[in-house]
Amino acid sequence: MVISFSCSASRRPTRSLALLFILVVMKTPVHGQSTSEFVSIDCGNNSTYYDTITEIQYDSDSGFAEGGLSHKISAEFMAGAGNEQQKTLRSFPDGPRNCYTLPSTIGKKFLLRAMFTYGNYDGLNRTMDGSPFLFGLHIGVNFWEAVNLTSVDPTLTIWKEVITVAPANLVFVCLINFGTGIPFVSALELRPLEDLMYPFVNTSVSVSYFRRIRFGQATEIITRYPTDSYDRFWESWPQNSYPWISVNTSGRVRRLPGNHAFQVPEGILQQATTLDTNYSYFEIKMGVGPNLDPKNLQLLPIFHFAEINLSNQNRRFNIYSDNDLLFRDFAPSRLRVDSMYGNGRFLHNPTATFLLNKTRRSRLPPLINAFELYTLVRMDNLTTDSNDVHYMKEVKKRYNLARKNWNGDPCSPREYSWEDLTCDYPKSNQNPRIVAIDLSANGLKGGLAISFMNISSLENLDLSHNNLTGAIPDYQINSLKVLNLSNNQLDGPIPDSILQRFQDGLLELRLQGNPICSKVNDTYCSNKKNTTPTVLIAVIVPVVLVSLLVVMCILWKLCWKGKSGDHEDYAMYEDETPLHIDIRRFTYAELKLITSNFQSIIGKGGFGIVYHGTLEYGDEVAVKVLMETSIADSTDFLPEVQTLSKVHHKNLVTLQGYCQNKKCLALVYDFMPRGNLQQLLRGGDNSLNWEQRLHIALDAAQGLEYLHELCIPAIVHRDVKTPNILLDKNLVGVISDFGLSRAFSDAHTHISTVAAGTLGYLDPEYHATFQLTVKTDVYSFGIVLLEIITGQPPVFMDPQTVHLPNWVRQKIASGSIDNVVDKRLLDGYDVSSLQSVVDLAMNCVENAAIERPTMTEVVSRLKMCLPAVPRLLQLTISGVPTISNEGNFHSDHAGRMSETSLLSGR
Ligand SMILES: *[C@@H]1O[C@H](CO)[C@@H](O)[C@H](O)[C@H]1NC(C)=O
Ligand SMILES: *[C@@H]1O[C@H](CO)[C@@H](O)[C@H](O)[C@H]1NC(C)=O
Ligand SMILES: *[C@@H]1O[C@H](CO)[C@@H](O)[C@H](O)[C@H]1NC(C)=O
Ligand SMILES: *[C@@H]1O[C@H](CO)[C@@H](O)[C@H](O)[C@H]1NC(C)=O
Ligand SMILES: *[C@@H]1O[C@H](CO)[C@@H](O)[C@H](O)[C@H]1NC(C)=O
Ligand SMILES: *[C@@H]1O[C@H](CO)[C@@H](O)[C@H](O)[C@H]1NC(C)=O
Ligand SMILES: *[C@@H]1O[C@H](CO)[C@@H](O)[C@H](O)[C@H]1NC(C)=O
Ligand SMILES: *[C@@H]1O[C@H](CO)[C@@H](O)[C@H](O)[C@H]1NC(C)=O
């Protein structure tokens, strides 16, 4: 049995030892922490107890997490467990993200450790069954690290540590389900640090533990509290035999006054490892294994040195990271610690190898007392505005809303935001805000909570079809534009503050279906959508007209059975659709209504004209009225709509509904307020910056990747071009018009051989083969990428007609790559990322389809060009120590295959 923290018996703090420790602390000016500030949680255990080894108090996790299931490790491993925390765990089979909420203090620096002991708790032998067992960790709203338990001995404990700054008075630790095994956690430990410690850690940079080692002859494998008052884990250096020499001192090892950065325990500094004097260099090799991505490994080493060998001979050495000289001719100070950390500069060191090499003038070989190695964790994503979070949690509690994904931060990161909330993500350095809440038909009971109105950025609140009772409280509402309280049990007078805004036309109020409406008679109690009275007329008149038409139409039908007139729009429900289409079917009249009689044209495309529209509930839509009405008779349109209605991806425009009958043929999409990429690239002064361009390119690539790889059969877009890449209000790229071209071109191959596709974007191979494949889209995407880089259209005059790829080739051949870049970018781009994107684009526009990359490849290459470390690459960075009582460091899945290996030489 191998589970154990091997704190040896002699180290166990008996009461007298603990007392002694306190005395020592009092004598030295250490800014120690008392355990009262520790937060220690034994996940899956329901009791509070003091750990027998550390005497730290552990609490049940019941107040810190929602949901999840508590488990014990399998009985066969129980007896061998080294401590209580290893025996239980909490697993989270439901939901993509499950968070623990730990108390903290805003701006406070702390160390957070999560521990994982699988112990075959589910009896599935999951770590050893040969399939990947991997899940993720977020610290707050940022990706921290992956936990890879694939092929890990079930009895081992794996731990992860992060040093970070609390963004609020609470901190979330989230387990992310990647679909490769149920996430679980055995223990969580939060240890406050001094603000001056780890000075390179701030609100936007955290560091994750890769290795923390003490040298010399330690009696335990892991040294922690109480030796380290911050309860950091120090692994002992396993090498003590020749030529390694352990030295120690009983003398005091001091710090320079004011040096509080690391607070290495004195007991650790009193020991060191050096070499026999015949040897001259000392390698610390952390063994980055094959599945780490060395290219993206950003390491921060901290070396702690104190001369404790009190001979009079000198000791000087150079310190290298890989082959880079970090510190020249360093001489450790006598009985005083020097912590060398290069001011927090992260290093590129693919092998995680560090070298201490004796200089010529030195008599003694290098010596080292302690070493820490961290990797960078970017804290780019911001948490939701803390007031919004607070009030949202009140709402959740008040109405007892146990929603699966209402967990952790409400808006961030975007892909885990709470369902039924809409958030606004400002581009500048501001926190996301909640702008819309839709809790209609959620069985809400009781009064209307004032917390909703305290969410000061809220614009749209829909609480219709609930059982809310009592009066509407008198709110001072600020930003609210739509308040839908229809079909509840609300009664009593409507507060003036709300009424006033309604009368001023600032608020769309809906109260129909409430007792309140039996007493008052105003438009907000009528069934139709209403904003201000003036708008109301505009709405009511057409509604009345339409109703008249309906009546007439029915009469007409009754009288002239079989003969269809102009209004067969309303007969459409008669023609049964054999297909099951989940989205809304609109009538022509409805389209007319939502587009205000097709008033506002927002675009003209190959397939028709696009109008702006507003649905009943205020959602903006784009209505694409297709020109070829003859397609209505075609059998291709509805199957195509059915396919499109099933395609859901954040980078593909969402189809809200359609209209199909003799009178109309239209598709209704989500409205994309920022227009299309072509407009953005060519128009105006508000030009996109380099990073925005890359993000949009990546968005589009991901949308296409989804169509190509995840739709079965694959969907070939056939008309990828900048006008078909739309932008939502946060400038997220969304692809439109996919699939449509198929419905059209297939239906008309006998009429027209003109391929779907647009001049300048069309795959040259198509002209030869007339085959449209996914690689056709890759070619067009390459052109899009070139447009993004150059700002030029695909075909232009310079001075003769030139095709963009040829122009780029010429420019590159005749000079530097900077000549191709859009002048509007000025110098705002990174040359190496530019080079990679140009290479990728040129690769996509290879003449031979077979030479072009797949969209999956495109996506991963684009991710590498983005300045932020993409999530998948971060995934692979980690140093995961494992604990056993065998005295060995176990190899670890995430990378460090070898034991901490060391070499020495003359
Ligand atoms: C929780 O910890 C207590 C104290 O160590 C222990 O007695 C109890 O058995 C544990 N509970 C479970 C479910 O393991
Ligand atoms: C855990 O303890 C709390 C109170 O201490 C109790 O209400 C709850 O039922 C317990 N849960 C389990 C699973 O034992
Ligand atoms: C777990 O799987 C491994 C590898 O397949 C096997 O050797 C081992 O006996 C299994 N253990 C149990 C308890 O099923
Ligand atoms: C930030 O959020 C974005 C979007 O949700 C996500 O793709 C990215 O990985 C996050 N960044 C970090 C560092 O977690
Ligand atoms: C150590 O330094 C000496 C010069 O002092 C140099 O010749 C030698 O190559 C270095 N060793 C290593 C392993 O870099
Ligand atoms: C409201 O409550 C009543 C009884 O209390 C129940 O019959 C009704 O279904 C509820 N309505 C909604 C929308 O939950
Ligand atoms: C409401 O007002 C309309 C006209 O404004 C009127 O025709 C109708 O009778 C009124 N209904 C009630 C219940 O007062
Ligand atoms: C997880 O660990 C296994 C076994 O060490 C390794 O094969 C796999 O590549 C790792 N996965 C990741 C994503 O690091």
Structure overview:
- With 906 residues, the protein is an alpha+beta fold.
- It has 3 domains: 373 residues, no CATH class; 144 residues, Leucine-rich repeat, LRR (right-handed beta-alpha superhelix) (Alpha-Beta Horseshoe), CATH 3.80.10; 194 residues, Transferase(Phosphotransferase) domain 1 (Transferase(Phosphotransferase), domain 1), CATH 1.10.510.
- The protein is 21% helix and 25% strand.
- Strands 1, 2, 3, 7, 10, 13, 14, 15, 16, 20, 23, 24, 27 and 46 form a 14-stranded mixed β-sheet that branches. A 6-stranded mixed β-sheet has the order 36-40-41-39-38-37, with helices on both faces.
- A hairpin with a 2-residue loop joins strand 21 and strand 22.
- The protein is globular, with a radius of gyration of 33 Å.
- It starts with 14 loop residues before the first helix and ends with a strand.
- The site of one 2-acetamido-2-deoxy-beta-D-glucopyranose has 2 residues, from loops.
What does the oligomeric state look like here? single chain
Tell me the distance between the termini.
41 Å
Roughly how much helix do the residues carry, as a percent range? 10-25%
The gross shape turns out to be globular
Approximate strand percentage: 15-25%
C-alpha Rg, in Å? 33 Å
Signal peptide: 1-32
Subcellular location: Cell membrane
Keywords: ATP-binding, Kinase, Leucine-rich repeat, Membrane, Nucleotide-binding, Phosphoprotein, Receptor, Repeat, Serine/threonine-protein kinase, Signal, Transferase, Transmembrane, Transmembrane helix
Pfam families: LRR_1, Malectin_like, PK_Tyr_Ser-Thr
